[in-house]
Amino acid sequence: MNLVSYADRALQAEQLAQLVASELQQAVASQDKASAAFAGGTTPVLFFKALSKQAVDWSKLRITLTDERQVEPNHERSNALLLTNNLLANLQPPAHFQALYQLGQTATELASLSLNLQQQFFPLDVVVLGMGNDGHFASLFPHAPNLAAGLDPDYPDILLEIRVADLPEARISMSLAALLQAKHLHLLITGADKKQLLEQAQTRIAARLPVQWPIEALLQQAGDSLTVHYAP
């Protein structure tokens, strides 16, 4: 991995937004379209706001999420709502957005959505991930029953459903295999605790220990194609 450190979170958000905007605009210039997937949660909010002010031909953009909670679209825990409020609603002209979850979504509909993403979005030009204090990324949590499938670099599907007993709702997540297809792969982290966890994950990888945290699989499989953006 490549690590970029910033003095503070405002600078991190601004400079990452400039970098991502440049990557997206380069994609538009070369192929007349671009696609991106962004993490939810609270960490990327400053980045979303900074990105919304960048000079990108948003009409050529297809945007989706790396993962979503199975909640109503207007629920306070909806990643789609967070993305809309902090990025999508501010884009002129608007970008095309593809949600990952709708109420009552069936396994067949999820498979159809995976196929649509494969055809219309992939390979993604840009992915910006986050990481939890438990080492999860997207919604690939340490104790998910199907975590092995989600972390399998040869997993054939874009999406999978994640259910973990101590989470308040089920999730929809992109698989590691899907995320690794991105042309530009970024990980946005803040706080000393997350940096320490990342360093511990690197130490475990160097010692060839079994994977303990999902982030280890990302670091192992992505290698130097992953850029980590850290601010205290």
From TrEMBL:
Entry similarity comment: Belongs to the glucosamine/galactosamine-6-phosphate isomerase family. 6-phosphogluconolactonase subfamily.
Record-listed E.C. numbers: 3.1.1.31
A single GO molecular function term of this UniProt record: 6-phosphogluconolactonase activity
Residues of the signal peptide: none
Pfam families, sorted: Glucosamine_iso
GO BP term, pick one: carbohydrate metabolic process
InterPro entries from the UniProt entry: 6-phosphogluconolactonase_DevB (IPR005900), 6PGL (IPR039104), Glc/Gal-6P_isomerase (IPR006148), NagB/RpiA_transferase-like (IPR037171)
Protein name according to UniProt: 6-phosphogluconolactonase
Role noted for this protein: Hydrolysis of 6-phosphogluconolactone to 6-phosphogluconate.
Biological pathway: Carbohydrate degradation; pentose phosphate pathway; D-ribulose 5-phosphate from D-glucose 6-phosphate (oxidative stage): step 2/3
Span of domain Glucosamine/galactosamine-6-phosphate isomerase: 9-218
Keyword vocabulary terms for this entry: Hydrolase
Catalytic activity: 6-phospho-D-glucono-1,5-lactone + H2O = 6-phospho-D-gluconate + H(+)
